[in-house]
Design goal:
Layout (H helix, E strand, L loop, with lengths): L22 H5 L4 E5 L9 H9 L3 E5 L1 H13 L4 E5 L4
Length: 89
């Protein structure tokens, strides 16, 4: 079974995010990383997407509310999923 845990993340928005901000996803061996980008969905920079893809992690950026709902569905299916969430403001 995939271990559930919560890790604090200091991101307040998508500006300035780098692949290093998502390194924990690689260490946790997740297969899917959902990124909640706030109120609206925002596309993450290509270097982040490329790095995660090379690590075998499927990345899906979406609004934070949608990311929370999607996380719950995938976790209920026992998928190895993680969510990096930016608070709604």
């Amino acid at each position: 079974m995939f271990t559930q845990r919560t890790v604090a993340w200091t991101a307040l928005d998508t500006d300035g995010l780098t692949a290093a901000d998502f390194a924990i996803a690689e260490r946790l061996s997740v297969e899917i990383l959902l990124v909640g980008t706030g109120i609206v969905a925002k596309r993450l920079p290509e270097p982040i997407r490329t790095t995660l893809r090379a690590s075998g992690i499927a990345l899906d950026a979406m609004g934070t509310g949608t990311a929370c709902r999607t996380y719950n569905l995938l976790a209920a299916e026992a998928r190895r999923v993680a969510a990096a969430l930016i608070a709604l403001s």
